[in-house]
Amino acid sequence: MESNKVYPHVENVTASEIAEAGGISSADAAVFHEKLQKILKECGGCRIRTWNLISTSLLRPDHAFALHQMMYYGCYGDWDASKNGPPPAWTPSLESAILTNVGRLLQRCGSDLLGSAYTNPIASFSRFYRLSVDNPEIYWNIIFRELNISFNVRPSRILDAMTSMEDNECSPGGVWLPGAMLNIAENCLVPNSKKKPNDVAIIWQDEGKDDLPLNVLTFEEVRAKVCHVANAIETLCLPKGSAVAIDMPMVATSVIIYLALVLAGYVVVSIAESFASQQIATRLKISNAKAIFTQDVIVRGDRALPLYTRVIEANSPIAIVVPGRDTSLCMPLRQGDISWEEFLGRTQFMDRVYEYTAAVQPVQAMSNILFSSGTTGEPKAIPWTHATPLKAAADAWVHMDIRSGDVVAFPTSLGWMMGPWLVYASLLNGASMALYNGSPIGRGFTKFVQDAKVTMLGIVPSLGRAWKRMNCVAGLDWSNIRCFGSTGEASSVDEHLWLMGRASYRPVIEYCGGTEIGGAFVTGSMLQPQSLSTFSTPAMGCSIFILGEDDLPLAEDEPGIGELALHPSIFGASTKLLNASHYNVYFKGMPQYNGKILRRHGDAFERTVGGYYRAHGRVDDTMNLGGIKVSSVEIERVCNGVDGRVMETAAIGIPPEGGGPEQLLIVIVLKDAENKETNFDDIKAAFNLALQKKLNPLFRVSFIAAVPSLPRTASNKIMRRVLRTQFSNLNRSSTRSAKL
């Protein structure tokens, strides 16, 4: 429970209080109160059933959020979380559970898979999870069948569980799908029982054209365009397996380019379109990219934000430049670069330009290079193989119940893992991908969700917070949403209570993993009760452990908090890094469990009474700002050179009061600590300007604190954990200067 306000128990709420909180008339409040009394009488004190009926049959999206809070907190006000765990905000019915992907499977095969222990999809969900961990051969064969995955050469087995660390140090969990050959992009495009040629693959809308009909591409149209681009890529004469970057917004054209590169046997280098030129250059250098696809400008409203010029400043290889507005470029090109029109025109004399034979790849061949910040300051280059997308699609099928005919929206970028995740989670499941070419913060996007009839809406919590503040969902019909997905940063109870209320209380499936995982290790399910801002289950096929103070895993059902560790056998997870030792980053120094060394993730997690999980931020010196992982070292490197009055800095993420994503605090040591005239606001503004220019325009310093000196280890390393503990307990309004 989160709210600090004291709400009356629902039994004691009066009609006048309902009218005041809900912003409704006295007559409507009287009707609401009468229906509430009937629910209370029917439920006889059962809090879970009471809230379930209130949320689904009484509360409406157009009721003021204060009324939603009054009902939720009034219902669960006397709930004892220490004995019962966090209260559920959504509870599945058996009727709805049977209609999910997993429910249908268990109705058909539950007894065969689980034996006499099988009863129904809800009661037997935990047993199905256990099967996914204990019997990967059975589980993953089921998934490949359900997803209609086509192997050119089938694997000799699902998992070769090697036990010798010396045999394969980078894969302590074993080798998945040995001997398998396929092309994952081809699997996205080839018709099967889940997707027909005329089914819609991509729905999109351009910002500013929100009242025009939506644009659609069928699977057949996408396949033809992908083949066209793949044929054009051949004219670049790049060696097969070369790395080719994409630095573009996630729109239909960039998705087609992405699929074409993978189809043709190249490796996509994912670069976020928000990056400054220095960060683009770093990623191009690490990946050794031979070409880059980009846009001349990014159009946002009446603004044209430069992108191609940043790519040039990064000293990129040959660039293929797509117009961001209309069909023509708005600037001249660097010598040797190619316009999108000229690039496609290179195929004009080819036969069968809309057909292409996929490059069949070993399943462990790289398909994508993504980046995630580490604690060294340089981003980790994490390869995705042709197997990693299968993990993404499987998570979507199992946990978010994505299926043929669904419409999936998730405002993201191909530069972050959720961009490629969205491509595979939707297309491999036969669903439509909904893309909005514009800012997701505003009425345009939220109306697009309505018009596209989105069934699964993914967000980072800060997006929902912005929608709530701007009131840009009011009057819209989000009734097609079957569930939300939330990832990228910590959420708060009230934020997700508000979000659920916009769609008549459809569940929020929390989703936590990493670029190196290809999906989640802990998440939720449509077959389990979902509590706000918590996770209800480890992801299928993943075993997770909470390490105690002795570095040994707590018992599986024991509540507690500590560093989270993963079993090394996770399908689709990374086995190498391009610019660091994979073993040293993820395994060195970790404890063993049943003869297997555990995999490091770096987050602190809590397992609650009732078996839910909560994230408690990073245990190392990487923080999460607005869904973007960044190391303290990267931020400090920028801030240390900003202001001559500052001798050194330490960057830490601290949780805000009331929960939510981390906020950035810069702890500074002044050269002249006795100067009482130091203007902290000026320093803060200078830090923000530098960080937004050199790292990411979304980064923002929330607080500045001055200390006489930074705490350090014997080897002179900054002890950021000490700072994090110190300042997490301070009153934020007074955080300007402090002494340790």
SSE-based structural type: alpha/beta
**Outline:** globular
Strand order of the largest sheet: 6-5-18-17-19-20-21
What fold name goes in the CATH topology slot of the domain at 183-198 and 213-398 and 413-429? Rossmann fold
N- to C-terminal separation? 32 Å
Report the β-strand fraction as a percent range: 15-25%
Q: What's the helical proportion of residues?
A: 25-40%
Query: Would you state the CATH class of the domain at 183-198 and 213-398 and 413-429?
Result: Alpha Beta
The helix count comes to: 24
Runs in which pLDDT lies below 50 for 5 or more consecutive residues are 163-167, 731-740
Main β-sheet description:
7 strands, mixed
Radius of gyration: 26 Å
Number of strands: 36
Structure, described:
Among the domains are: 10-79, no CATH class; 106-181, no CATH class; 183-198 and 213-398 and 413-429, Rossmann fold (3-Layer(aba) Sandwich); 621-734, ANL, C-terminal domain (GMP Synthetase, Chain A, domain 3, 2-Layer Sandwich), CATH 3.30.300. Helices cover 32% and strands 21% of the residues. It is built from 24 helices and 36 strands. The strands form eleven sheets. The chain has a seven-stranded mixed beta sheet, with helices on both faces. It has a seven-stranded mixed beta sheet with strand order 13-12-9-7-8-15-16, sandwiched between helices. Helix 1 (15-22) crosses helix 4 (65-75), helix 2 (26-43) runs antiparallel to helix 3 (47-57) and helix 8 packs across helix 9. Mean pLDDT is 91; it is low at 163-167 and 731-740.
